Amino acid sequence: IMGGPSDDSLTGVHVVVTAGGTREPLDPVRFLGNRSSGKQGYAVAEVAARRGAKVTLISSSTLPAPAGVEVVPVETALELREQVLAIDADVVVMAAAVADFRPAAVSDTKIKKTHDPADPDAAPSVALVRNPDILAELVQRRGEATRPVLVGFAAETGDADGDVLTHARAKLERKGCDLLVANEVGDGLTFGQDESTVHLLRRGEAQVTTIGPAPKTVVATALWDAVIPLVKTL
Ligand code: CTP
Ligand code: CA
């Protein structure tokens, strides 16, 4: 399906990129959110468009749209899921920080500070429910097929169970996507920053490519360089 003039062209390829942190409402004025700025996903979309792809950016971020990119605004994980699953893409890059949980109930009216007249100083508890795992659903829906190429992102910190790469390798195998971009997070790393350090892991391949600290456009370029060989075999 590659019709481009050069090896790194994405002409004729429809790419879906998700970006930003989803916002899970509690009431009309409040939401549960996360620190994702959307910058990395926007850079991925921008580089793909520059290389000639048709790019749909499904975004819960309010960053300005990159040149030549169609932006579909979403807020919640459920909205993001609906929009992603509606598109028959060649490549899906899940750069969004999709909330794992959402409030079980959304109040139609603002939750007041004194919400229980019998106990005016009480604080409410928030019950959460799991959101669907969109990337896992894309992998499952693809089955034995190789299209769409599926790229996951993972923000990892090392912990007692292992370092960033150990967690990333386990996540790639668990998720079953083709490529996993593992970000090192914590201590002011990555979130909202213009530079990041990432490891590119390919499913079934032991070799890891590490990029950075580098601008997010450099990371995006490395991502597409790794994806293009997979797109060419579609
Ligand atoms: N993702 C998704 N749907 C979710 C959660 C995550 O599609 N409900 C995607 C993200 O967009 C990302 C990848 O899955 O591309 C990995 O997200 P991550 O939060 O690192 O993985 P989880 O399986 O949620 O594991 P963790 O417990 O570390 O949060
Ligand atoms: Ca998660």
Q: How would you sum up this structure, described in words?
A:
The chain is α/β, with parallel strands linked by helices and 234 residues long. It is 25% helix and 27% strand. Strands 5-4-1-6-9-10-11-12 form an eight-stranded mixed beta sheet, with helices on both faces. It has a two-stranded antiparallel sheet with strand order 2-3. A two-stranded antiparallel sheet has the order 7-8. Helix 1 (39-50) crosses helix 5. The model has no long low-confidence stretch (mean pLDDT 93). It binds cytidine-5'-triphosphate and calcium ion. The site of cytidine-5'-triphosphate has 13 residues, from helix 3 and strand 9.
Task: Throw out a few tags for this protein.
eight-stranded mixed β-sheet; two-stranded antiparallel sheet; 25% helix; 27% strand; binds cytidine-5'-triphosphate; binds calcium ion
Give the helices and strands, then pairings:
Elements: E1 14-19, E2 24-27, E3 30-32, H1 39-50, E4 54-59, E5 69-73, H2 77-85, E6 91-94, E7 101-103, E8 128-130, H3 134-142, E9 149-156, H4 164-175, E10 179-184, E11 195-202, E12 208-215, H5 216-232
Parallel strand pairs: 1-4, 1-6, 4-5, 6-9, 9-10
Antiparallel strand pairs: 2-3, 7-8, 10-11, 11-12
Describe the structure in brief.
Helices cover 25% and strands 27% of the residues.
Count of separate DSSP helical elements: 5
Note the run of SSEs as H and E.
EEEHEEHEEEHEHEEEH
Number of E strands = 12
Q: Main beta sheet, described?
A: 8 strands, mixed
EC number: 4.1.1.36, 6.3.2.5
Domain DNA/pantothenate metabolism flavoprotein C-terminal: 10-228
Organism: Luteipulveratus mongoliensis
Binding site for CTP: 100, 110, 132-135, 153, 171, 175
